[in-house]
Amino acid sequence: MKILVVDDSSTMRRIIKNTLNRLGYTELFDAEDGAKAWDVLSANPEIDVLITDWNMPEMNGLELVQKVRAEERYIDMPIIMVTTEGGKTEVITALKAGVNNYIVKPFTPQVLKEKLAAVLGEES
């Protein structure tokens, strides 16, 4: 299982990747914004899951989700939005853009585990 973690905060990328490692996911990629994430996806089409922040420079997470969903090969890729944007309007906007699940920062490792299991169709 290959997972791409996108966040402009290197600390948040590290926290998410460390949590994923503890859950047994070791094939991890990361990027600091949507534009770089698109480059990583283009170079590694075998990536299975996208976990992205919303607020980032260059290309934000919502723009990244829309770009990913516009590509036929990524139409079924599970996408989790991890963000401080916790309002109902923001959640609805992200879901309409194609996000499969949504996590509001700060979050616990258990929440990430449960949301990831949900988008993968596994039991947490």
Characterise this structure.
By secondary structure, the protein is an alpha/beta fold. The protein has one domain: Response regulator (Rossmann fold), CATH 3.40.50.2300. Helix content is 44%, strand content 19%. It is built from five helices and five strands, in the order E-H-E-H-E-H-E-H-E-H. The protein has helices spanning 10-22, 34-43, 61-69, 88-97, 109-120; strands spanning 2-6, 27-31, 49-52, 79-83, 101-104. A five-stranded parallel beta sheet has the order 2-1-3-4-5, with helices on both faces. Helix 2 runs parallel beside helix 3 (61-69). The longest helix is centred in the N-terminal third of the chain and has 13 residues, at 10-22. The protein is globular and about 30 Å long.
Summary, kept brief:
The chain is α/β, with parallel strands linked by helices.
CATH homologous superfamily assignment:
Response regulator
* Overall morphology: globular
Count the beta strands: 5
Number of domains: 1
What is the helical fraction, as a range of percent?
Answer: 40-55%
Structural class: alpha/beta
Radius of gyration, whole Å: 13 Å
- Low-pLDDT stretches are none
Query: Sheet with the most strands?
Result: 5 strands, parallel
Strand content: 15-25%
Separation of the first and last Cα atoms = 16 Å
Strand/helix succession = EHEHEHEHEH
Query: Could you name the CATH topology?
Result: Rossmann fold
**Given the structure, what is the number of helices?**
5
Average pLDDT works out at 94
Strand order of the largest sheet: 2-1-3-4-5
CATH level 1 name: Alpha Beta
Query: Which CATH architecture?
Result: 3-Layer(aba) Sandwich
